[in-house]
Amino acid sequence: MPAWRSAETNFPWRHLGLAFLGLLLGTQCTASESFNIRSASTQLVKGVYRLHAQIDYPLNKEVKTAIESGIPLIVNQEIEVLRLRWWLWPKTIKHIILRYQLKYHALSEQFVLTYLNQDTQRTYPNLTAAIKQLSTIKHYPLITRGELDLHHNYRIRLKTSLSIKDLPAPMRPLAYLSPQWYLDSPWFSWLLESPNI
């Protein structure tokens, strides 16, 4: 296969015009519903606190058009473990970003969700199925009991966002100007349950 055709398959530049049109139309609209952490909790299992969460990822028409045109999107899930202090701001003792890439593979007509932290991927027959997988965090090993000072209290917080800076370079200027691309959640926080000593 000629090299130019292989490159085009990897990234469909010819579809950028359609994505640009979506961006331009998006600037005429009000910002849509953004991402939302529906629930989140931790559970101590064999000395490891494991994270569970359910997240809503509503995608507006402009973002869906970009995905279906072959534009890869990066979604970040950001987690912090904070040690609470009486007279000072909480101290961040752990900061983790789980990064996912969502893209449409035109040849197979499948949606590909890649967990970039481990470079593992799964394919889905439609966007709804891929988003459903992205929306669930199960049994993520967050922190061990041994990493905590049992004389302090801790708070966990989680948020998620679409990474505009990871869009293809030609799209970024318009994305930064369009409210349709500012998709993120507020922080969702909860106290870490105290382990039995």
Automatic annotation (TrEMBL):
<dbReference type="Pfam" id="PF14334">
    <property type="entry name" value="DUF4390"/>
</dbReference>
<dbReference type="InterPro" id="IPR025500">
    <property type="entry name" value="DUF4390"/>
</dbReference>
<protein>
    <recommendedName>
        <fullName>DUF4390 domain-containing protein</fullName>
    </recommendedName>
</protein>
